[in-house]
Specification:
- This protein has 354 residues and is mainly alpha-helical.
- The chain has two domains: 67 residues, 2-Layer Sandwich (Erythroid Transcription Factor GATA-1, Chain A), CATH 3.30.50; 278 residues, Retinoid X Receptor, CATH 1.10.565.10.
- The strands form three sheets. A two-stranded antiparallel ribbon has the order 1-2. Strands 3-4 form a two-stranded antiparallel ribbon.
- β5 and β6 form a beta hairpin.
- The protein is globular, with a radius of gyration of 21 Å.
- The structure holds zinc ion (ZN) (2 copies).
- One zinc ion binds next to α2.
- It comes from Caenorhabditis brenneri.
Length: 354
């Protein structure tokens, strides 16, 4: 016998990630709803039957548990056979003549389209930390948003890295070491890409459309704090961290208008620049890195014939900034309630260095 579903605690027919098919179907159905009647805890609705709490509470439980939809529609080559992706592939043809990087571009596009599914569900204008940008409503990220975006980021990074045969063949422990670094790099690039397109103001956007802001810190609750710093100290660390992301990554991403193809090159370089992978697959990673740099150079020169070389240099320099940001990120998990590991689900915790 399976243990019962971690959400409704009733059904034992587990479909995925510890939850039953009914809860999973419910999640798929409602995750796109823009408005939902809020509920004050403890749940007011006294319902008989399954589950015994309201829709709002059920969705909150699922989000807090870090359940994601991708598990069931994970990337594979078959997706490329569908009409939508064939048409898109045609449209993007010629962006690079290297088929390996072209497939990675489509994969990234696929992942970013799925990120839309998580956008702005459950926002009411009256919540704290809600702002309007270009008529749309956005919410300040909560610990569960940080967890969700880490979860999505790590999964996306794994799918991306698995496109390289030399990576696929590594053992689990080695992969873990690589992902501790590359997983964060991967999600920072996706966030920077999104952030650079949203607004010039001091917002840093996560993949699900929630944001971090230097002066907006909601990490203090009445409960026990998992980190040893008081509220003002945490708020100060938060401010420094977000400003670092904005100055070191968002600014160059906006100034250079980094595009999707360049994101793919950056991700590839960061995967093979990960301190660990170089030691295991020397020949293969050398080949990929030099091919990637060459394709990037061809690409930037084609994109801006006059100063393509300068652009190339500036993009390569971004690797250093992103690696610094990875360090700040891990530092943040020890000084801030919002980023503390106790908020993370098992998958995310398992992806972290120990
Ligand atoms: Zn259930
Ligand atoms: Zn409720």
């Amino acid at each position: 016998m399976h243990p019962p579903c971690i959400i409704c605690l009733e059904d034992s027919n587990i479909l995925t990630q510890g939850i039953c098919s009914k809860c999973f179907m419910f999640f798929r159905r409602v995750v796109n709803e823009k408005r939902m009647r809020r509920c004050v805890s403890p749940c007011e609705e006294k319902r008989v039957g399954s589950p015994s709490f309201c829709r709002y509470c059920r969705l909150q439980k699922i989000l807090d548990a870090g359940i994601i939809i991708e598990d069931h529609i994970t990337w594979n080559e078959k997706i490329l056979d569908s009409r939508y992706w064939k048409t898109l592939g045609k449209r993007l043809e010629g962006i690079t003549n290297d088929s390996q990087f072209f497939v990675l571009l489509l994969l990234q596009r696929y992942q970013r389209e799925i990120h839309q599914n998580y956008n702005t569900s459950l926002i009411s204008d009256y919540e704290v930390g809600v702002v309007k940008i270009n008529q749309k409503t956005y919410r300040c990220a909560k610990p569960s948003d940080v967890n969700l975006t880490l979860h999505i980021g790590f999964r996306n990074a794994i799918d991306f890295a698995n496109q390289f045969p030399c990576f696929r063949n590594l053992g689990i422990e080695r992969k873990r070491l690589i992902f501790a670094e590359f997983g964060i790099a991967y999600l920072l690039i996706d966030q920077a890409f999104k952030t650079a397109r949203m607004t010039d103001d001091a917002f840093w956007f996560l993949q699900n459309g929630t944001f971090l802001h230097p002066s907006c810190f909601f990490g203090i609750t009445n409960g026990v704090s998992p980190v040893q710093y008081d509220a003002p100290t945490q708020a100060r660390y938060h401010c420094e961290f977000v400003n670092g992301l904005l100055n070191e990554i968002k600014t160059p991403f906006s100034n250079l208008e980094i595009d999707a193809m360049e994101c793919v090159f950056l991700k590839t370089l960061l995967l093979f620049a990960a301190s660990f992978i170089q030691r295991v697959n020397v020949e293969e990673s050398k080949e990929i890195v030099s091919r990637c740099l060459m394709r990037l150079m061809e690409y930037t020169i084609k994109k801006s014939p006059i100063d393509g070389m300068v652009r190339y240099g500036e993009i390569v320099m971004l690797i250093g900034s992103i690696r610094c940001a990875i360090k700040s990120f891990y530092n943040q998990t020890t000084v801030s309630n919002v980023f503390h590991q106790s908020n993370f689900d098992l998958f995310v915790r398992g992806s972290f260095p120990t």
